[in-house]
Structure formats: structure tokens, C-alpha cells
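Subject: sequence -> C-alpha cells, single chain

Hey, anyone have a minute? Need the predicted structure for the following. Not urgent.
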Amino acid sequence: MLWLMAAGLCAVACAGGTGDGPASVRWPEGSTDTWNGYTRHTFTVAGCPAWVVEPRSALPGKPWSWCLEFPDAFTERCAAPGLLARGFHHGHIAVGNTFGSPDALKKLTLFYKVVTGLGLSRKPALIGLSRGGLYAYRWAAEHPGWVGAIYGDAPVCDFKSWPGGRGKGLGSKGDWQELIRCYGFADDAQALAYRGNPIDTLRPLARAKVPIIHVVGDADDVVPPDENTAIIEERYRKLGGTMQVIHKPGIGHHPHGLEDPEPVIRFLVERCR
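Reply:
Had a minute. Here:
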């Protein structure tokens, strides 16, 4: 059923052609408003609200960024407006507080197929803020050839750290129980034994040469960097992957992003044009 819904949307999306100008895209049925000063098209994919923001002048090949979670958090600090100004499209689908679960990944894939059916690039830049790191990395590991780059901002890379709280982080008991439900784990032990966290699934990304950039607060006690980003960095480099980490001394989990996000913007533009 989800596949049929996506196929129908793709048929509508593709009907308008795939040129580089905004007028060449016939967006799926929905509504239009503005997002950070740019035109946003909102529609539905697999029963979930979804949207794409278009730049004033799209770059050839229609590169785009995809915020997997919290698209309205610290937006000016987290690259999206800067990427739009450079000619990127920007998208999001709201799959709920589902922690990158298998069902969520299916819906993300349907959104990807709809958006690429509009003529957007087949290798977006994935943006994972906080728990959005679970969505970004888990989807990327299943589809490494469909990823241009990954930008993680204080990203959760191991759910044992958050929401599990099995390290030195604060954890979240309510979110931990919801994660167990979303993944269909029988109990805590099965969840803790799971080997599908981002820290466990880096090899496909390294083989596909997916470049990664992270921004982390070194004083983060919600998603401690040494339980998340540091493990990704060590393992990914051992696998031959390219990764850059920008540290914010003395900063906690918030605010996300950078006062000047230009280093992240430049990283993504250079790798996803």
C-alpha cells in the first residue's frame, strides 16, 4: 500500500518535467507557504506530512538537503537557509518520534523516491540533529549509493547512549520505552543487544565514500560525544572514510549548529553539487 501511494505521487511529480527552474516542477497536490523566506510545497507521503522548499535559482542537477528530524530547530545555525541561498532545495518528512525504526525507514525511502521523481538529485545531503542522527545514519546505511554527504549535529549514533542512558548521558526512560515499542523489541535485553545502530553500520558508507561532518558540543551530557560522535569518527576513519568534526568547547547539547554555519555549508556544497 505504501509503495502504491508513493508511485502515485511520483507520477504526479514527474509530469511537470525535470528542468532546473522552479516552474518546471509540478508539485504533488497539497499547499504552498513560505519557510525562512523561500517557497515551500507541502504534501503527503505514506500518510505523513512532507515538504520541499525551493531555492530562488536551483543549481544544475538540483542538489538538495534533507533534514531527518527537527527541521525548525536552530535553523539559521544549521545550514539549511545557507544551502537554499546557494541553490539547494531542502526537504523533510515527519515520520514521528520513531527513532529511525524499520517502519520509519520505509517511509523515508518513499519520500526519497517521490522527491527524486521531481527531478531532484539522487544523492542528497542528509542532516541529522540529535535523535535525527538515528534516522540519517540508519537510512544511509541501507541506501549508501543514494547519499551525497551526512551532516550530524550533536547526533545520536547509539541508542544505548540516548535514550538508553547506559553510559554517562542522562537518557530518557519514556523515549527508551517508546523506542523498544517502535522497533518491536521484546525487552531491554534485546534492544541492548541490537547491532543496527549507526556505530555498527558504517562499512557500507565507507565503501560508498560518503563524506561526513559532525558538529558537537564537548560538554553535551544528553548525547555525550565520546559515546556517539567519537566512536563514529574512530571507526569510520579506520574503514577509510572521510570525516570532519567541529568541536564547540564548553557547549552542551544546545544550541545546535554554529554561529556561522559557513564551514558546514561549504562542506556540503562541495560534496553534493
